[in-house]
């Protein structure tokens, strides 16, 4: 189960032409939106989350859906995304869901979602 991504799409559109980054924390069946600042030195092509903000997410001890945008690029996990969120063949955090929002000309045009299953990041089928 993934959250309604409306707030994430708006957040990523507002960050354009830089990559946007935000998260959702899940408690039971409820997701809470958490906007994050991209502190990357190259924000047009990458994102970096402030270490203190990341620690707060981890310490919340809830399932995390991490969302970031690709500026004028596809809503697919990049090699950098895979390397960042996979450690020793396992996801960085248990129950982590990754979402990539494709933003072109300040508009979110597509979204991809993944969870870690069977030793790899696999796409999550959209809900019907």
Question: Looking across the biggest beta sheet, what order are the strands in?
Answer: 2-1-3-6-7-8
Portion of residues within helices: 10-25%
Structure class: alpha+beta
What does the radius of gyration come to?
14 Å
What is the CATH class? Answer: Alpha Beta
Q: Which spans of ≥5 residues are poorly predicted at pLDDT below 50?
A: none
Question: How would the blueprint of this fold be written?
Answer:
Elements: H1 6-15, E1 21-27, E2 30-36, H2 51-59, E3 63-71, H3 79-85, E4 86-87, E5 90-91, E6 97-104, E7 107-117, E8 120-123
Parallel strand pairs: 3-6
Antiparallel strand pairs: 1-2, 1-3, 4-5, 6-7, 7-8
Explain what this protein looks like in three dimensions.
- The protein contains 3 helices and 8 strands; from the N terminus they run αββαβαβββββ.
- The chain has a 6-stranded mixed beta sheet with strand order 2-1-3-6-7-8. A two-stranded antiparallel sheet has the order 4-5.
- The chain is globular.
- It has helices at 6-15, 51-59, 79-85, and strands spanning 21-27, 30-36, 63-71, 86-87, 90-91, 97-104, 107-117, 120-123.
- A hairpin with a 2-residue loop joins β6 (97-104) and β7 (107-117).
- With 128 residues, the chain is an alpha+beta fold.
- The model has no long low-confidence stretch (mean pLDDT 93).
- It has one domain: Cytidine Deaminase, domain 2.
